[in-house]
Specification:
It contains five helices and seven strands, in the order βαββααααββββ. By secondary structure, the protein is of the alpha+beta class. The protein has one domain (5-166). The strands form two sheets. It has a five-stranded mixed β-sheet with strand order 1-4-5-7-6. Strand 2 (29-30) and strand 3 (33-34) form a beta hairpin.
Length: 169
């Protein structure tokens, strides 16, 4: 077991089922593989925009993004990228769709969804055969029982090893 990495976007795992479709629509993935190493790196930045709504992020906050995109956690990435209005609208639409499918949380804005569910502290730990993510518990996490999302084990085709998620509720 390697050193634990603190992350601040652990709630991103809620959207794991949407990630492959998003990356295809962003033209970063084709046939379940990234079309270039540059697109694989950009995918990590797009995911951070999805979670925070910001186009600039310090690389220290991208460890989980790298794991979900099949990148080494020590891979250097740019700290910002220009995201077109079209791509921003696509990601906002994805967030609105996720919110509408989870009726237990009621109507909430994209920013409220980000703040309540996606921007969440966690601990990411690498093991020989898997990654493990433990997500910080909050009072309203009981609503995860009524979530339409499945995220206990995540293994996208481009990931080197699966991510096991422990989200106590």
């Amino acid at each position: 077991m390697k050193e634990a990495i603190k992350v601040e976007n652990a709630g991103m795992v809620i959207l794991t089922n949407y990630i492959p479709v998003l990356l295809e629509r962003l033209r970063l993935v084709s046939g379940k593989q990234f079309t270039s190493s540059e697109n694989q790196q950009n995918a990590a930045l797009y995911l951070q925009y999805l979670i925070t709504g910001l186009q600039k992020t310090d690389e220290v906050y991208l460890s989980l993004n790298k794991v979900l995109c099949g990148l080494p956690v020590n891979q250097d990435l740019a700290d910002q990228m220009e995201i077109s209005n079209e791509d921003q609208l696509l990601m906002t639409g994805l967030m609105e769709a996720a919110i509408s499918h989870w009726t237990a949380i009621g109507r909430c804005s994209v920013d409220a969804f980000r703040g309540n569910w996606l921007i969440r502290d966690g601990i990411l730990t690498e093991h020989e055969d898997k990654w493990e993510l433990t997500v910080e518990k909050r009072v309203y996490d009981l609503l995860l029982n009524k979530s339409p999302f499945s995220f206990s084990i995540i293994k996208h085709p481009w990931m080197n090893k699966p991510l096991y998620v422990n989200w106590p509720y």
